[in-house]
């Protein structure tokens, strides 16, 4: 008997369904035992100790929400998608189970302080997410206990290799559950309105056509609103230079600790949680044990280290003495800043850094059927979004995408820059 074909989702329903009160979705509904078990796994609970927006709370103080709440939110968006008639009748119960699990687990591989940590220690959160699902972990045990192939099938949605492209599109595309939740959630939690869009309208106009999620033409304005919301959130919130300064300062601390370890510095602090990352021999258990609370403890202890650079950087981080910034003009300008820093006793390797940000509002693939292309079902057939939306068409044809080049430096040399 083929488990995937005969599986009935109702067989896994909780006797007493659970809800989470949520600022964005009102209620998050947990109807199935396996989702409840996954939520309570150590890998998911670790996400409570990982901030969703990194250093953004240094600019928007209320944006201290976690990747845990975002993961719950993505699960809820996908659950709502599964209530849309076209998906409800198209997908099997086993596919519905897989995509709900993938939505909930899609971010479990994020490291503490996310991108700053990944850059220095060469970790990839998507790869670690797959490892946490496939290797020895509580999550793997929960999934495989229901069905031995479930971990592999859930992981294939996240890695975009699943045979059913609808499931991939729901979790990872240019208009997916992940982006819908983080735009609404990050906007609300940061106290801004840039990320607002009409999610209900998007779901109402969703259709399945030739094995792909598309949208009715009446939903185009809601899609335009969503795309512009994402564009403004990136430039007003995610790419805010103060947030970038914070994250680069974090990166400098990680870099200094790594350099000291390589040169056999004798740490006063017991850094055993970081040792697997230095040795590049990281198990799922090692990764699970490391979160932002551990690193914040280390930063507090690093202030007392004999190494002046590590001590100073840690003090700056904990007390929000962030680096200043200005527009990067050219290489001569950058050299002048580095020389100025050196003359004041600041090692440019740890105190000077550049940052270039660029964001493309919509990526047009020019190929009908491309999974990430948003397509619209019109009276004349299926068309890529730019052929239906004048706004998106103008964005695609523009060759003037906004870029931002910054250089960051200690505040002590600001007057000479």
Given the structure, what is the number of helices? 22
Give the integer mean of the pLDDT values.
94
How much helix, percentage-wise, in residues? Answer: 40-55%
Residue fraction in strands: 5-15%
Shape: globular
Structure, explained:
With 417 residues, the chain is of the alpha+beta class. 51% of the residues lie in helices and 12% in strands. It is built from 22 helices and nine strands. The strands form three sheets. It has a four-stranded mixed beta sheet. A three-stranded antiparallel beta sheet has the order 5-9-6, sandwiched between helices. Helix 4 runs antiparallel to helix 6. The longest helix has 22 residues. The N and C termini lie far apart (72 Å). The model has no long low-confidence stretch (mean pLDDT 94).
Concise description?
With 417 residues, the chain is of the alpha+beta class. It is built from 22 helices and nine strands. The mean pLDDT is 94.
Helix and strand arrangement:
Layout: H1 3-6, E1 13-22, E2 26-32, H2 33-39, H3 42-46, H4 67-81, H5 85-90, H6 93-105, H7 115-121, H8 125-134, H9 138-146, H10 150-158, H11 165-171, H12 177-190, H13 199-204, E3 206-209, E4 212-216, H14 220-238, H15 241-262, H16 275-279, H17 284-289, H18 292-302, H19 308-318, E5 324-327, H20 331-343, H21 348-351, E6 353-358, E7 375-378, E8 381-384, H22 390-397, E9 403-409
Parallel strand pairs: 4-7
Antiparallel strand pairs: 1-2, 3-4, 5-9, 6-9, 7-8
